[in-house]
Amino acid sequence: MDISDAASTTTTKTVTEYDRAKEVQAFDDTKAGVKGLVDAGVVNIPRIFIRPPAELAEELTTHQSKLQVPVIDLDGIRYNQLEDIVDQVRAASQTWGFFQVINHGVPLNLIQEMIEGVHKFNEQDVEVKKQFYTRERTRNVRFNSNFDLYHSRTASWRDTLAISTSGTKSLEPNEWPKVCRDTIMEYIKEVSKLGETLFEILSMALGLKPEYLKDMGCFNLYSVICHYYPHCPQPELTLGARTHSDPSFLTILLQDQIGGLQVFNENQWIDVNPMSGGLVVNIGDFLQVVSNDKLKSVDHRVVANVHATARVSVACFFTGHTTETQKPFGPIKELISEENPPVYREFLVGEYFSKYFSKELEGKSAGLKQFEA
Ligand SMILES: O=C(O)CCC(=O)C(=O)O
Ligand SMILES: [Fe+2]
After folding, report:
1. Protein residue whose Cα sits closest to atom 9 of ligand 1
2. How far is the CA of 369 from the centre of ligand 1 (A)?
3. How far is CA 229 from the centre of its chain?
4. Range of 98's domain?
5. Which residues does the UniProt record annotate as the domain Fe2OG dioxygenase (predicted)?
6. Using CA atoms, how far apart are residues 287 and 216, in angstroms rounded to an integer?
């Protein structure tokens, strides 16, 4: 390559990068999200959403599998089958990092209302919705498209309404989106109860007393993240959510019947098939750390929605304490020994969050690496 070639390559690169930044900004400035693009009738998705050629080529090598994420019936708790449930949760959390629960106690009509509430929020007058559009992390209610829009190589085909519950009590009623406020409040209450039960089961699965994880401070439903995945006209070119593991101890996820969530298991992507009335539970990075790798936080993603109807999901993140002034978390003492030395160092949830939100959504290994001892 001679100097003029090098110069023109540099120029092209600069222009491409400049265009991307400009296009990302223009998209963000609409405050209408991906739904705004769909409403405007786009048939070719903007290039900020198109995945790099290498990623697209890799996709062609994946194939469908008959493997299924384990389903656990929590009704057994009432029938003296707790031990059996603890065994099932342990097995699922050590291998899949994911399981689905049924008979979980969260009222089915509330689940339906939550799904409808997220539709209503996203499908209301765009001018009303825009009032909630922000990337300001100090705001307890944040509507935007792609929290990592400015840091990611590829944007995802989804919009998100995030509610931080730590400030729920101090939230002014008009800070909340009216169309789904009461439903979300009620949902937080019910999912917290389920979370408490699951943390007890997980403590037992680790051979600890039932209150152990709760006493440690893992149990705090910090954010409710409502996702809306509009129909994508070119689903093969993008994703609904990039591959990631969750920045939480535990996540309880409600998904509607459309499907698209996939979990990485035995070197392949497996569909997490929607179950009417079921909830998906997954182990987050922090639980993998405190369990010293006994429980696994596993990569997952969402494919772009091919259906005419938008897909809705609601992820409840139990993140424990959240400010840097709180006590640090690290591998549980009872789980480490000479044969099982700590794999991870102690960390502060706040410290982890500030890194998480300053980069793009990425696979688990990158996230967990920073905790290593
Ligand atoms: O929409 C989904 O099914 C998954 C959402 C998710 O993985 C997340 O919010 O962390
Ligand atoms: Fe996730």
Report:
1. 315
2. 22
3. 13
4. 3-369
5. 220-320
6. 11
- Give me the number of domains the chain comprises: 1
DSSP 329: B
Mutate to test the pocket of ligand 1, among 271, 300, 312 (most ligand atoms within 8 A of CB): 300
CA of 283 to the centre of ligand 2 (A): 10
DSSP states along 6-61: HHHHHHHHHHHHHHHHHHHHHHHHH-SHHHHHHHTT-SS--GGGPPPHHHHHHHTT
Give the bridge partners for 282, in sequence order: 98, 251
Q: Which ligand is nearest to the CA of 272?
A: 1
Q: What is the CATH number of the domain that holds 109?
A: 2.60.120.330
Is 310 a pocket residue for ligand 1 (Cβ < 6 Å)? no
* Residue with CA nearest ligand 1 atom 8: 315
Ligand 1 contacts CB of residue 223 (under 6 A): no
49-100 per-position pLDDT tens digit? 999 988 888 776 555 678 999 999 999 898 889 999 999 999 999 999 999 9
The pLDDT, as a whole number, for residue 139 is 87
Report the alpha-carbon angle 237-274-224, nearest 5.
80
pLDDT in tens, 232-278: 999 999 999 999 999 999 999 999 999 999 999 999 999 999 999 99
Q: Is the pTM of this model over 0.90?
A: yes
Q: Which ligand 1 atom is at minimum distance from the Cα of 301?
A: 7
Ligand 1 pocket residue status of 301, Cβ below 6 Å: no
